[in-house]
Protein 1
Amino acid sequence: MGLATTGAALHRPQPASTMTQRTRAPHAGATRIVLALLCAGGSAAAATPAVEVELAEVTVSAYNGTEVPYDRSGVSVERLDPAELRGRGITTLTEALATVPGAYIQSGGDNQRGNVSALTLRGFNGVGSILTMVDGMRTSGLSGGVDITANTLARAHCHDLGKIEVLRGSQGAVYGNGAEGGVVYMETPEGDARKPRFRIFNEAGTHDSYTGHASAQGRQGKLAYFLSETYERTNNSIHYLDGGKPPYKHSGKFGNASEALRLDYHTSDTQKTTATYRREDADYNYAGPYGLTPYTFRSNLATLKWRGKLSERYTASLMAGYFGTDYMLGHGYNYSLRNVQAEWRNALRWNDRHTTTAALTWVRSAFSALYSGVPQPNARNLDSTIGICAMHSFSPTENRRANLAARLDQSSTYDALFTLRADASVRFNGDRTRALASAGRGYRAPDSFARSSAVYRDPLWGTTYRGNPNLACETSWSADAGLEHDVAENHTAAATLFWQRRDKALSTAYLEDGSSMAVNAPGHWTAQGVELSLRGTWEAHWNTGYKLGWTYTRPLQADKKQAPCTARQVWSADIHTSPTERITTGVGLSAAVGRTGFASNYQPYRNDNYCTLRWYARYKVNDHLSLHMRVENITNQKYVTESAYTVNNPAAYAQSIVCAGTTAHLGCELTF
C-alpha cells in the first residue's frame, strides 16, 4: 500500500545511469525505517558515467529536541513519514503508531474512532508515562490533572502532520517528567519550496463515516506556508461483549474539526523564524455501563521559534509556546490544562568528532477541575519547572558514534530531579551490520489530584477516592541493545533486546471500605523482551515492499502478575505492490496476544487475543486525481477495545466495548 519509503522521500532511479550515495541513509529494521534508494538495472548502465547524487541528511528532531543525524541516533527511535502512511491507507495517528514495533493501542482501537486511546510502549502502559509533543510543546501536564495524552492520540490524524517520531524506553528519558516510557513527537509540515500545491481529500464509509481535508502549501519569496482544515465524523458501531447495544441514541458518535497553520520566514540561508498554530474541537459519546457520557475536547496550540546558524560551528535557537486544552467529561466535569513553555538552545560543533548541545527550558503548567461550575479545591495544580539539559556527541571514527545526555529539573512542587541517557552505535562488516545500545533513567511525578484529594465521592461513577500526600515520584531505568544487518540489497533484518524497571511505581490501591487511593507500589515493575523485524523492497517485482514485525514483552508487577493494559505479543505486517504504474494495492495485519484490561485489586482482567486483516487499493487516474478503497478488519474479528470499569462491579466487564467489525471506505484525492 504505497511506495516502500518511510522516513524520507523516494529518490527515483535515473534512467540508464548509476547513482552514488554520498550520505549514508538510515537502515531498515525493528527500530529503523527503510529508505528505498534503488539503483537502475540493465546492461546499459555499465556504459554510462556514474551520476553522483548527494542525499539530504535524514535527521531525528525529537532526539532531545536536537536534530541528530539518523544514523547517529540510538537503537529505539522510529521515524514515520505521514505522506507515506497516507499512501498505504493509514490516516489516523493510532493506526500509524500501531506500525511501530513495541507499540500497542489498548482502547479506542479498531474502528472506534475518537474514543480515548491508551498507548503502551514495551509494557509501559501510557497514563502519565508516555509524553506527546507537538511542534516542540508538551501536551500533557507537569504534575497534575487528567491524562491529556490519551485524547491527543485519539483525535490526531496524518493529514496535517509532516513528521511523527517515536522514542521508546531510554531514548525519552531526558525529556523529564512523564517520558519514562517514551515520547511521541509530531510536527506541522513546512511549506514546500516548489510551486504552490493544493490537496483535497474526501473519504466516506460505513457507520456514516466521512473525512474531508483541504490543504495549501508553497513558498513566496522568503516566506514558506502550510495551511490545512480537516473535518471527520463517524457513528462508529458500539456493541458490548455480551452482544447487547447501548440503549442511548448516538452512542459512539464522534466528530472533530481541526486546523493547522505553519509559517516559515527565511531571513537568510542560515536564519529562519517559524510560527505554528493548531486548533482542535472534538466530541465523542461514550456508551459505558453507567450511561451515556459525552466527551468534549477543545485545544489550542501556538509556537514561535527562531533558529540561526551564527557561525560554521555555532547554532542557536529560541522558542516560546502555549498549549491550552479543556476536556469535558459528562455534563458536569471540566478539566483544564494551560502550559506555557520557553526554551533557549545552543549547539557547538567543536570539530568533526565532538558536538555539544545545551538548553535551558522553562515550563509553567496549570491544571484545574470544575464540577457543575464549582472549582474542586483538591484538584488544582500550578507547577513551574526550570530544566537544564546538555548532550555531547562523539564520533571517534566514521563507523563509531556515541551520545551522552543529562537533564536536571528544578520543580516548584518537587525537589531537583535528574535524568540521563547514553547510547552508542558501531558499523562494521563493510557497513552491512550495525550494533546499537542505549540506557537511561527517567521519572514520573504523581498528579495533584492523587496527592491532595480529600475523601471524595465521584457522583458520576459512584466511586470513592482519597488523596495520598505521601506519594513519591516514580523512577525508572531502561536499557536496550540491537543489531541491524543488510541480508541483501534493499533487505534488512533487525533484532533488539530491551529491559525496563519501575521503582516506586504509581498504582491504585483498593481499600476495605470500598474506596481507593494512589500508592507507590512496593517492589519493582519490570518489562523485558525482544523485537524482531524484516523489511525490504523488490523494485523489479512490481515495486513490491514489505515490513514484518514481532515484539514479545513480559510486563510484570511486583507480585509477578501481568501489568494491566498490556499485551505479551504484538505482531504487525504490511505487504504492498504496484503491478502497474497506476495501481497500488496491499494488505496489512495486526495482532495482539496475551492482552489484559484494567486491574481490580491487582487482578488484571484478561482480554481476548485478536488478529485483524486490512486491504487497501489506490488507482491513479492522472497526475492530479487518484481513487482509493480500503477495508478494515476483513475477517470481522471480535475483541474488546475498551474494558468496562470493574473495581466495584466485576460483572460490568460483560459490557466492555468490542470493535466495530468490518468497515469499508471509498475516497478520492485531488492535487494540483
Protein 2
Amino acid sequence: MKIYATNIVRKAVLVIAIASSVSACKVNEDDFFELPDRGGIDAAALFDAEGSTQLHLNRVYDNVIPQFIYQDNVSSTMSGRYGIHLASDENMFPAGDQYARAALGLQGSLGNHDVRFAGNTYNHASGGNKYFDIAKCNAAIKFIPEGKMSDAKKKEFLGQYHFLRALTYFELAKVYGGVPLTLEPIDPNNITVRGRASARQIFDVVLSDLDKSIEYLEGIVWQDANGRGKIDKLIATCLKAKVLMYWASPQFNPNNEQDRWVTALDANKAAYELAYNSGKRLVPNYADIFRLEGSANTEAILVRSYSSTIERRGHDGEYRARPASAQGGAHQGFQASKRLLDAYPMKDGNPRGSGAYAYDEVMFWQNRDPRFQATMAYNGSVWPLDGNLNRRQWNYTGAINESNLRGVYNKRFTSITPPTSVRYQNNLGGNGMDWIELRLAEVMLNYAECANETGDLATAKNMVREIRKRAKIEEGASGNDYGLGAISSKDQMRELILNERMIEFAFENKRNSDLRRTRRMHLLTGLMETIEVLLVNPPSGNNPRDKGVLEAVDANGVMFRDKLNIEDKATYTKYFQTRTVSPGNYLPYSVPEFHYFYTFHNDFVNSGIDIQPTIGWAGGTFDPLAD
C-alpha cells in the first residue's frame, strides 16, 4: 500500500549540524552551529570541503551510533519511554521503569502514544528525532558527489553516510516494521514525503545503502589513534549480514521462507570469513571483553569510543555496575533476573541438572559455565576492584557499607584498576571504556543461527563450540563435546543458540531484540524474579546476632566474613539463606503478539496525513509485512 503524507518530518527541516570535534570517534561535544538548507545552496557549499564535511559527519556519528547502555534512559530521550526498548526477562530493569513494565505486561499496558522511538522532541540532539539523523545523511549523499573534493575522499565520506543512514532505518524497522521513507534532502518549502513504506521496502533501502558502503570503503583502513569507531568495509559487511538474518527471522518472516535463510547464510558466512581474514579473534579471556580497547581488543568490530579525561566523552557505566561499598550505585538493569542466572549451563556445557556435574540450588554458583563467575558477583564471591584482587562482595541484607543492595551484581563493565573517577560528573570521569555494539562472537552466533536454519548443524556447532572453548567450558567425556553432543536436531540447536546468546551477551542489550526477532517475547510466562540473600539469624533489637559475628574485625583489620569458606555448604548455610523474590508484586509476563511491530505515537500521527497506526493497535490498519 502506498500512502502519501506530510508527516512529522515537517518538524525536521534539514539541519546541518557542525560538531566541534574533528575525529568521528570524538563526538560527544555539545557546541555546534546550525546551517539551514535553503534550497540546497548552503549545504552544497558545506560539502565542498573535507573539514566541514568531517565536522558534519561527526554529529551524525554522535546521534546514530548506540551509546553505552542506560546512557539514553533519561527523561529528555523519547519523553522517558526508552525503557520500552530495554525491556526483557534478562534483568530487573523493569522494576525501576514503568514503560518497561508496561511493555512486558507486568504492570499496565502500552498505548498508541507511548512508543516514541522515532522521536518527537523535534531537535537535533542525540535521541531527539531519527528523521533529523536521516536528513543529515540524505543531504551528504546528495551533495558530496556534486562537490569539489577528490573522488577518493568523496567515496570515503559517502561510505560512512550510507552506513549511518542504513543503521538508522534498520533500527526504525526493528521497532515499527514499515516507516516513512525519504531519501532526498528535505526542501523546507515543500515538505511532502511518502507515508509508511512496507518493511520490505525499508530493508531493500538498508541493504542498498550497505552495498554502497561496502563498495565505497573498499581498501579504507582507519588507524586506532584517530579513527577508532569509524565505519569500514568489515563493519558494513557484518551489519549487512545481520540485517539479512533479521529479514529471515520470524519477526519479519513468519512463514519461514527458506530462501531468506539461504541468502542470510551466504552473507553471514562472508562476514565471518572477512572478520577472520581481517585478524578478528575472540578475546582469550571473556572477562576482558570490555576491558581491552583499540587494537588490543581483537574481538570488537563496531564501537563507540569514550574517554575519561576528554570533556563530554565519558559515561557512567562503571558507577552503574558497582556496589555502594565500591563507590557505586548499582543500576537495576545490571541486576540479573533468576532466568538469566538459571540460563547458564554447568562447567561441561550441559544444562543444570544434566551432565557430569550436579546442580545445587543453594550453592547455585558452583560448577557453572565460567562466564557465570566472570559476570555474576554473588554473595561472598571474589570481585576485584580498585586494585584489590582479593576483594570479596557481600550481598546479604544489612551488609556493612552497602545500600541499594542487590542479591547479585554484574561484574562486567567494571575495571580492576581504579579509574580516574568512578563517576562521570561535570562532563568528565568514568572509566572511559568503549561501548562495543558489535563483536566477533555475535557475528559467529549469527552465522551459527543461519547455518542451523538451513540444515547445516555441523557449522552451527562449530561456531558455538569455539565460543564455549573461549569461555573455558570443559570438553567433557567422550561424546559430550562442550555440551553440544546431545544436540541432534534443528529445533534443539535453535533453543541452544538463543540461550547461548542470552549468556554470551549478558547485559549488552541484545535480549530485547532477540526476543522480538524470534517472536519469543509474547511466549514469556511466569514472574519477573531475582534472588535475595538473608542472614539466618538477622539482627534483633540491639543484638546484631549473625551480622555482628560476620563483621567482627580481627587484630589485622580483617572481618570474620572474609575468612569464611563459602564453598563449604555447611559453613555457608550456617549464616546465609537465599530466596527467590518478585519485587513489586507485579503480574506475570504478558506481551500481546501484535507488539512485534509498535505503532507511532499520536504526535507523529497527528502532525502528518494518513500516517496509519499499526494493525493490532487502536485504530490500526497498516500491516508492516504487507507488500
